[in-house]
Specification:
Blueprint (H helix, E strand, L loop, with lengths): L3 H14 L4 E7 L6 H14 L4 E7 L6 H5 L16 E2 L6 E7 L22 H4 L3 E5 L14 E7 L3 H17 L3 E10 L2 H15 L5 E10 L2 H8 L4 H4 L4 H14 L17 E3 L3
Length: 280
Amino acid sequence: MVDRGADQADGLRRMFGGMRPRVLDIVAGEAGVGRASLVVNLGAALAKVGRDTLLVDYVERPATSRILRYLGMPKNSTAIHAVPTASRVSGFEGCAALEMSRGQWLQVGPLAASGIAAMASPSREAASHDWILVSGANDDAVVVSDDGWREVVVVLSKAPSSITQAYALIKRICARDRRCRFHVVVNRVQSHEAASRTFQNMAQVAHGYLEVKLALIGFIPVDSSIERAAAHGCSVLEFDPLSAAAKAYTRLADVVGSWAKPGPMHADPQLSTPVAVGAL
């Protein structure tokens, strides 16, 4: 059982002691591959094991946050200069969501060596989080960690267009900032073998063109519980914690949560080893 009192004390030490949250920039080459679902459910899985997590959704006005709609939460202020306010996600203590507009730039650490600012939450509340999951940034915004690296999670499906568009997105990201670590999650596949095949296709597309490293860190199986949970405005871990999808997100949270600090890439050893495509 998670000791929230201990978590709060740790959050205060992090707030005032200079420790910073880990930031994951979750991207997709095309719409419809399940990025919002991954952000919500991975955030819930991290919160379930005691990792205070903030979900940040960047949107183009007049559109509204898909993450807030997914969770049945009211949208934040639409004013571009307004200070965004995070709202707690019901059902999971330690998880909050925040909607931001393009043009709202928030800094979580010092400027990167390249002069590009890091984005995260503007408030002390967010500084107490362990993880910040950013959705909607893609190549239009940059999130960097304390060591100057951008941690990017690319969400794929097995559709050929998803692979080619993800490759194009990685190419645009690399053109803007070479200091990126790319992690891949394959969504809506039946098995880890199918996920590995899709991942290898992604690596083959990138091979010979981009000098990057890719690591497969997990997959999410086809599971109707995800859609039913979304219809109820909650995560699949709350809706059906024994479902295959809930177990997959728990495993993914374990993999991500093992990244104690920025460093070498960590792939899920039961899925595949990292595929090197050139060298950073």
